[in-house]
Design goal:
Elements lengths: L1 E6 L7 E5 L2 H12 L8 E4 L13 H6 L4 E2 L6 E2 L9 E3 L2 E3 L2 H32 L4 E6 L8 E5 L7 E4 L5 E3 L4 H16 L9 E3 L2
Parallel strand pairs: 11-12
Antiparallel strand pairs: 1-2, 1-3, 4-5, 6-7, 8-9, 9-10, 10-11
The chain binds zinc ion.
The site of zinc ion (ZN) has 7 residues, from loops.
Length: 205
């Protein structure tokens, strides 16, 4: 594949694409930027990058060639000739300095710890409400205060979904019978503890 520098006059500036032909490179860029191929403003051959096909070109090479790359930590532009700190590379990521990378790692570790705590709380809440189910995924949903838990009951095929604390669960129509059977058994044992609240499957399409 050949390297092309395609400019769509979008926010990110011109980008490198590896494609067999100029037309393909323009089509890839247009598709990525969500514009029509006729709106691509320029497409230049860059044979010096062919050796990195199918891409990506290592960020250290791009910096040396005068490109800038966004710092993965703070988002500022990293240039090769900026006279501040030396950039740090890891895979396709670049940080403006070792200190910035370290701060980024601390943030990432704390995000992971927060998520692990959320996962634990959500799993415990699920098992308290639905004894015996097997939780396989906890996710956070955009703009929703409570996590969403995916779990299996005996016999289901696609899993059951529940927003922690919600009064209904979601399941595919095909799993409705498995859910109702679980809830019937569960309700029978909960009745012994004076809990009569039943959750009936809410089928999603
Ligand atoms: Zn930075």
């Amino acid at each position: 594949m050949k390297a092309f520098l395609v400019d769509c006059e979008q926010e990110n500036g011109a980008q490198l694409y590896f494609a067999p032909t100029r037309g393909k490179a323009k089509a890839m860029a247009a598709n990525e930027e969500g514009i029509n191929i006729t709106e691509v403003s320029s497409c230049q051959r860059k044979p010096e990058y062919d050796e990195y096909s199918p891409g990506p070109v290592p960020p250290s090479v791009l910096l040396k060639d005068g490109w800038w790359i966004e710092c993965s930590g703070c988002g500022k532009q990293v240039w090769d000739d900026c006279d501040e700190d030396d950039p740090v590379f890891s895979g396709q990521s670049v940080w403006c300095s070792a200190a910035c990378k370290e701060r980024d790692e601390v943030r990432e570790a704390s995000r992971k710890a927060d998520f692990a705590a959320l996962e634990k709380r959500a799993t415990e809440a699920t098992l308290a409400r639905f004894p015996g189910v097997s939780v396989y995924l906890v996710t956070e949903r955009y703009h929703r205060p409570e996590p969403y838990v995916h779990f299996h009951v005996p016999g289901d095929t696609q899993g059951i979904g529940w927003e922690v604390g919600s009064g209904f669960v979601e399941c595919a129509p095909i799993d409705r019978a498995a859910w109702d059977a679980y809830e019937d058994r569960s309700l029978a044992s909960r009745r012994g503890r004076g809990d009569n609240g039943s959750i009936r499957g809410f089928s999603r399409l």
